[in-house]
Amino acid sequence: MAKLEDKEPCCCGSEEQGEDKAEQSCCCGDTKKKNKKEKKSKKGKKKKKGKKSKETEQSCCCGDSGCCSDSAYSCEDDPYKGYKKNVIVDFLFLDLTVCDRCQGTDERVARAVEKCRPVLEACGYNLVLNQIDVENAALAERYRFYSSPTVRVNGVDVCPSIEENDCDCCSDISDYDVKCRVFPFNGTYYEVPPTDMLVANIIDTVIKQKKADPEEGPYVLPENLRGFFEGKERKEREVREGAANTSADCCCC
Predict the structure, then answer these.
(1) How far apart are CA 95 and CA 235, in angstroms?
(2) How far is residue 222's CA from residue 198's CA, in Å, rounded to a whole number?
(3) I need a labelling partner for 44 at 20 to 30 A (CA). Which of 70, 121, 155, 196 fits?
(4) For 111-159, what is each residue's pLDDT tens digit?
């Protein structure tokens, strides 16, 4: 019979033990050797788990090294990757060689488009900028052109009100008193539209998905533009005729 002092306490507090101390029976059904093996195996598992977490470690916005690695969800700051719908920005003008108003608008439209581009790309839109030189009455009719300069987004004028004042540059081109467009913004009128005005109106037109008026009546060429085109054509014809006469009167041949 085993002495009382030889008995060793069980893991659960019971003092029952078998005859062989190497295989002491525990009231919960486990042996001490078994308990030691389980502890070792648990330690081994923990080490492996820690090793795996290092391999899958990712920098995450929430600070957890692996919260996104085993999930279908992500917290990366990814850009929009879907289909982008084209947005057509048309800059229509009478002259870019002489007219200060058209030249200034050209520069500011290009600047405004570049400012709008990243914002609208994030919303699923791709901006396309076109320059349209309305050099005759036929083109004016084709594009339903009413005043220079004009900026449209998908056919919608970004400044729907048409107000004009005297334009010395276009008047010199045509020998006709031509009026060109002015743009209201911040309580002031501008002969060259401010960049911020263009940015705000371009984005507003796109986001609100504004469309051109389908009930707009037949196009009638404004008298102001008629005078410009006729005067420009007349001056160009006079220059050609003058060059021809100079060539015919030349005595060197």
Answers:
(1) 15
(2) 25
(3) 70
(4) 999 999 999 999 999 999 999 999 999 999 999 999 999 999 999 999 9
The residue ranking higher by pLDDT, 153 or 248, is: 153
**pTM for the whole thing?**
0.69
Question: Tokens representing 193?
Answer: 């539209």
In a 3-state reduction of DSSP, which class is residue 89? strand
User: How far is 130 from 64, CA to CA, in rounded Å?
Assistant: 48
Give the count of alpha carbons within 13 A of 39, CB side only: 7
Please choose, from the candidates 155, 161, 147, 154, the residue with its C-alpha nearest in 3D space to the C-alpha of residue 105. Answer: 147
d(CA 8, CA 18): 10
> DSSP secondary-structure letter at 123?
T
Nearest-10 crossing angle of helices 100-122, 195-207: 40
Determine the pLDDT at residue 65: 59
- For residue 13, give the 3-state DSSP assignment: coil
Give the type of residue at 178: V
Measured distance CA(127)–CA(198) in Å, rounded: 14
